[in-house]
């Protein structure tokens, strides 16, 4: 297929180079590549899905089960929660979680700061220090007091520094396809979550609609690297990103991997015909 073959030991180095190279222009590139849709997809990740495909024996569930599965597919941020966002250096997902918690807390207490809200802690974990610097800078610009609820941690999705059963929620947006061993990242997600904790993953996925797939392929392999060269001065990094999307497991296969990591109630939702998918699971 003409893809560059990457050995395991080279992959982490290559990924590191990609994100060091594009950190400062990452947001601009995301907006250009997704026509701004990545913002809506991240909103969806934090605020929940409406229609999903349950993964397992049956693709059709009766109304009551469907209602239940919609309920558990949401991250449902709440005051006092401990949440881990992995590969989220720029803070995009973490800021949404904080805002969601503040709005829930505000409704419940008419705006007074509760003890529960003071216990809230969002950890942003990223392997790349350049991306974390972008996030910290943005947090300062947005007026977040990082001592209060945000912590920035340099760390590896395959070997997290957090304790077993310490988190209420785990999110990873556009990050899991860049880890060397997806199974290790999934088992680490399972390990750090509490019982009842939710796992949510937003990732570029696979388009199955024939004509749309052809258009998307042309866009991916021709337009994205060209835009990368123009905006970030880095064609190669964006070429790598496109190839990493195509190598990522298809929706059903990835759902199976999440289930094999131990998660229950595993399901996924395709957005924009499968350009992206939100996968979710619960540690029971």
Automatic annotation (TrEMBL):
Which Gene Ontology cellular-component terms appear in the entry?
A: extrinsic component of mitochondrial inner membrane
Output the GO biological process annotations, alphabetical, semicolon-separated.
methylation
The answer, when asked if Nucleotide-binding is one of the entry's keywords, is: no
Q: Which GO terms describe its molecular function?
A: 2-methoxy-6-polyprenyl-1,4-benzoquinol methyltransferase activity
Which residues are S-adenosyl-L-methionine-binding?
90, 126, 156-157
Q: Where in or outside the cell is it found?
A: Mitochondrion inner membrane
Q: What job does this protein perform?
A: Methyltransferase required for the conversion of 2-polyprenyl-6-methoxy-1,4-benzoquinol (DDMQH2) to 2-polyprenyl-3-methyl-6-methoxy-1,4-benzoquinol (DMQH2).
Quaternary structure (record): Component of a multi-subunit COQ enzyme complex, composed of at least COQ3, COQ4, COQ5, COQ6, COQ7 and COQ9. Interacts with PYURF; the interaction is direct, stabilizes COQ5 protein and associates PYURF with COQ enzyme complex.
Q: What is this protein called?
A: 2-methoxy-6-polyprenyl-1,4-benzoquinol methylase, mitochondrial
Gene expressing this chain: COQ5
